[in-house]
Amino acid sequence: MKFEKINENQMRVILSIQDLEDNDISLHDFMSNTLESQDLFFDMLEEAEEKIGFKTKNCQVRIEALAMTDDNFVLTITKVKPDISKKRSHNTKNKPKPIAKRKSNNLEQTCLIYKFSSFDDYCYFIEFLVKNNLVSSFKVAEKIYLYLYNNSFYLTLCNLNTEYENISKFYTVITEFGSYVTNPDIFIHRLNESGTLFIKNNAFKKSFLHYTRKDK
Question: Rounded to whole angstroms, how far apart are CA atoms 109 and 74?
């Protein structure tokens, strides 16, 4: 785990798959923002204060995560100025509060969402899976839908299969073509209400059949 202080209000953390394993956190739990991953996050902030002097006590913070191709994750952590009008008169805990709320035990907790800027980007992703023997990726989740919303395409993966043998490679590949959507439990409702369901379950199986170029 490596820490880099960008300025007084922002820092960068490089986190590896091995760091997750050392803390008994699966890749799925980390990507799903579980209680375990948030505990790791709080420990990370304490270590950052000790090593690089980045103090976050009594602060709200925003977290942006980016998966890299070498099985590393880059977390950008930014302090957020509190809304004085909503400040409480008493303090409960001396821990920083992430902007993203902890999830309750509902269906959306097991969902991930990735955004593709265009349908071509989605098709390039599907072609990559086919050409690299990852057609078994349809096993990564029980429900895989593709939505069209605001001229972008959103892939939703619900009821995730954490036992899928290529799950680590899958997460690494998909971030090369699309971007992870934060707060998926909230955003999925927006897709259901205002988006257009472009491909129903199983989107991968149908895409492998219809949206890959057939080489002669």
Answer: 22
Q: Name the nearest CA neighbour of 75 among 156, 141, 20, 154.
A: 20
Give the containing element (helix H, strand E) for 167: helix 167-177
pLDDT bracket for residue 144 (50, 70, 90):
very high
CB-based burial label for 154 (10 Å; 0-12, 13-18, 19+): buried
Tell me: the pLDDT tens digits for 161-180?
878 888 878 888 888 899 88
Where do the structural domains in the chain lie, given as residue ranges? Answer: 2-81+93-98, 107-210
- pTM comes to 0.53
Question: Distance between CA atoms of 200 and 188, rounded to whole angstroms?
Answer: 15
d(CA 66, CA 47): 21
**Domain 107-210 is found in CATH 3.30.70.1950:** yes
Q: Are strands 10-16 and 2-7 parallel, antiparallel or unpaired?
A: antiparallel
Burial 71-107 (b: 16+ CB within 10 A, else e): ebbebebbbeeeeeeeeeeeeeeeebebeeeebeeee
Enter the tokens of residue 18.
Answer: 């091995």
